[in-house]
Amino acid sequence: MTAHEPTASVRDTAEAIATMEIRGAATIAGAAAEALAAQARGIDPDSPEAFCASLRAAARTLHETRPTAVSLPNALRYVLQRMDGRDVETLRRNVVDAVEEFVDQLDRAQTDLGRVGANRLADGDTVMTHCHSTDALACIEAAVEQGKSISAVVKETRPRNQGHITAEQLRDAGVPVTLIVDSAARRYLDTVDHVVVGADSIAADGGVINKVGTSGLAVNARERGVPIMTAAQTIKLHPETLTGHTVEIEMRSESEVIDEDAREAIGDISVENPAFDVTPPRYMDAIVTEHGQFPPESIVTLMRELFGEGAAEPWAEP
Ligand SMILES: O=C(COP(=O)(O)O)[C@H](O)[C@H](O)COP(=O)(O)O
Binding positions for substrate (predicted)? Predict the structure, then answer.
């Protein structure tokens, strides 16, 4: 291994993110930051420049895994912007400290936004969920901690069934759960009081990028008069959208949609598997963050406050 190559720990984390063993925007962000700390601890470069080059290379490897959750480049940027010092030991300490600080903030932000989201829920409410979002779960769990009785209708979320994880975690939190197939969502909207989803990225216009199926759910919720909120800590704000960039939607393998036998039996068709979609701001009632709740159209104000006019690549040299 040359000094610039990612350590095994970075390669393992990158592989786990790409294969979705580590998944969900907040979890990916925490794991990527921890991998940078492992890289900082695990190398013995002969100069401060070599240390920085090695950390930047690790950040690139981690960034190349999945394209949609902006929490990943935001996490890398947070750590690399604090990579400061004239000697290797100082640089190492600053990176490790920055990672600890980042992970602390991640946990605190989730707890804080959970309380905000919980205030939108009333005793006796039933909520509908899509996919598995730790930020969305934080709202429901905080409502339960406030002593409210909450039930959940959980969409299974094809093709990877992350709804099963949500169902299990809600059950563990004492929330009665009804699991449904995705296509039953509109029918069950008549029985729920709120829809709560997470986000992988939030664009400057207030568009919410989340697991595919969120936008259809939001349109149906509006048609049924059911309020829908996105629970998203501010590392989900996508700074590059401030300067006109769009968010890349990850396309995943067709093998997640159709198994080999069925594929062979059907023959010559094409299969597409987008992992995310964009919910226009007019179909979302609120974005709940650790700084309070926002109408989607006003999120740009918070984005400017936190990111200025945009952001450079995480590995850009200062
Ligand atoms: O869309 C997903 C996960 O998609 P995937 O399973 O493809 O990663 C989640 O709703 C967001 O990432 C938010 O999660 P969190 O609130 O935990 O950050």
Answer: 23-26, 66, 210-211, 236
Instruction: Report whether residue 23 contacts ligand 1, using a CB cutoff of 6 Å.
Output: yes
The distance from CA 155 to its chain's CA centroid, rounded to whole angstroms, is: 18
Binding site members for substrate? 23-26, 66, 210-211, 236
Pocket test for ligand 1, best of 200, 276, 284, 287 (most atoms within 8 A of CB): 200
Alpha-carbon dihedral sign for residues 62, 68, 72, 74: positive
User: In the chain, which segments carry CATH 3.40.50.10470?
Assistant: 120-307
Average pLDDT along the chain, 318 residues, taken 10 residues at a time? 76 98 98 98 97 97 98 97 97 98 98 98 98 98 98 98 98 98 98 98 98 98 98 97 96 96 94 98 98 98 90 81
Ligand 1 pocket residue status of 74, Cβ below 6 Å: no
From the CA of 294, how far away is ligand 1's center (Å)? 20
CA-CA-CA-CA torsion sign (228, 131, 311, 82): positive
Place of tokens 């296509």: 183
- Environment class of residue 22 by beta-carbon count within 10 Å: exposed (0-12), middle (13-18) or buried (19+)? buried
CATH of 120-307, one of 3.40.50.620, 1.20.120.530, 3.40.50.10470, 1.10.10.2910: 3.40.50.10470
Binding site membership of 30 for ligand 1 (Cβ less than 6 Å): no
Kindly state if the Cβ of 131 falls inside 6 Å of ligand 1.
yes
Question: pTM for the whole thing?
Answer: 0.96
